[in-house]
Amino acid sequence: MKKILIHTLLALLLLGCSNGQKKEASMVPDKTWWKEAIVYQIYPRSFKDSDGDGVGDLKGIIEKLDYIKSLGVTMVWLNPFYQSPNVDNGYDVSDYKAILSEFGTMEDFDNLLKGLHERNIKFVLDVVVNHSSDQHEWFKQARSSRNNPYRDYYHWWPAEKGKPNFRYSLFDEKGDAWQYDSISNSYYLHYFAKEQPDLNWENPKVREEVYNIMKFWADKGVDGFRLDAFQFAAKDTTFPKFPDGFEKDFIQYYAMQDGLHDYLKEMNEEVFSKYDVMSVAEGAGRNFQEAHELVDADRKELNIAYAFDAVDIAKPEGYSLLKLKNTFTTWDKEFSKKGWLSIFLSNHDQARLVSRFGNDSEEFREASSKLLNTFLLSMRGTPFVYYGDEIGMTNIEFDSISQYKDVAAINGYKKALSEGVDMHKFMSDLNFASRDNGRTPMQWDSSENAQFTSGEPWLPVNDNYKNINVSVQDKDPNSILNHFRKMVKLRKDNEVLVYGDYQLLDENNEDVYAFTRTLNNETILVLLNFTNHDATIELPEISHVNQAMINNYHSVEINHSSIQLKPYQGILFKLN
Ligand code: NOJ
């Protein structure tokens, strides 16, 4: 086999045209800034602490604005930073127009937004309005008596009617979404923790309050909205009985209920249509049709679908690349003509990207992190990348439940104990999948606490920070960080990576994910070896390839129409 350095011009092109015909030129579909965006997600509690209290804050993010700019990303999504008792780290909001004091002040927020805009970076606000905190004034009023004007802001069930039909709660320690409240002898509904009562979207006053809140932030200049858990906002408020065991498939019963589209259309009319903003809801319906109904332009609801099918594939025992390929390919196909997707494999509700989808061993962490970032940034859809993945941060090892901070982990543990499940397996699964894995402090340098804080970090810094940090990688042209920056630049410089048609190659190859992106007469070939061993891909229809545009190794082996890839090797070739 002939070994050829990528710096050598390898030869010519012509792909997918075994009959020698050039592919018909594809048109650039509706071009829009949010389709071209690269979103960088920041978990504010863990990014940078400016005042030594161990908790990240807005001033800390401001200190790092030039770093964010250096990544090349064009948009920042910040997880909630509103006033909150922090039962669920800000996803329990007690005042939607105030800043959590640990994070700073409204002036800090204004400065942050200004600093981002000065750097041509847009901002996405996380809007948490399926539920509020039980400490929100609305809920305090609502629970005070059955006659309170705020009562109908939430869902209540009078106890004299008996216990309401079972509803499953994701974070409740008993899994029960009905919480009895003695003050008014009633139950209230909470799909998440009991401190997160669900808002009643049937009440027009609630909807008006929410739109006013959104306009308050849009008037400040935020450029986008992410709607937390919004698929669940509409409910059948007669609360009928669901079949036994429905909780195993609760999305079917909770998501996309009647009324949801009316709320979204109204929100669009009242808020989105009045500003140049993008919108994305967490979740994308229960099937493709529902996803389209959320985001197709003619629906006038949302812009970007955020589907979990791919992210849910990683399991402690591993995952099948064929399944991953199939999932991304099917979603792409379904959205190739209409609608728009987000592309992501990690966020604050997941463990770390490289630990779940790559290989976080000493030997392969670097290559597999680069591979995953190459993948995310070469797909069609708006990439959402999560802080720390640009340097290959990994899961943290916790041995005991006392180390976890996440309400989902702690209450999940209590539930598992009460149900007598195998606690050894529970802990080992938690170690792999816990959200705390993805929330450890950003690793800036090799000084104490990775320069995240001068105090005691709210969640421990991963022990590997001396090896894995921004400062070390900044200086190394071959680091994961600099590879990420190159890949971002490549996407921004090549419209084909944003708008080009996607075509899967060698579908049944269990090791290599290969596809092309084509726009007009331009084609880019993407080759990704997802395994820890060499892998070969036969591409008979490709006669020749040009010089690699990016490669996480120094070379690649090419022999006629077959290409041999090193473990976790990821390469892009321009084919014409
Ligand atoms: C989804 C958010 O992403 C998650 O972090 C939160 O716990 C729940 N919604 C409840 O708001």
Structure commentary:
- By secondary structure, the protein is of the alpha/beta class.
- It has three domains: 2-28 and 498-575, Golgi alpha-mannosidase II (Immunoglobulin-like, Sandwich); 39-132 and 204-488, TIM Barrel, CATH 3.20.20.80; 137-189, Oligo-1,6-glucosidase, domain 2.
- Helices cover 28% and strands 16% of the residues.
- The chain is built from 17 helices and 21 strands.
- The strands form five sheets. Strands 11-10-6-3-2-13-12 form a seven-stranded parallel sheet. A five-stranded antiparallel sheet has the order 14-15-16-21-18. A four-stranded antiparallel sheet has the order 1-19-20-17, with no helix packed on it.
- Strand 14 and strand 15 form a beta hairpin.
- 48% of the residues are buried.
- Mean pLDDT is 94; it is low at 1-25.
- 1-deoxynojirimycin is lined by residues 88, 91, 128, 192, 228-229, 282, 348-349.
CATH topology of the largest domain: TIM Barrel
Which stretches of 5+ consecutive residues score pLDDT under 50?
A: 1-25
Mean pLDDT: 94
Beta-strand content estimate: 15-25%
Q: How many separate domains?
A: 3
Kindly report the spatial arrangement of strands forming the biggest sheet.
11-10-6-3-2-13-12
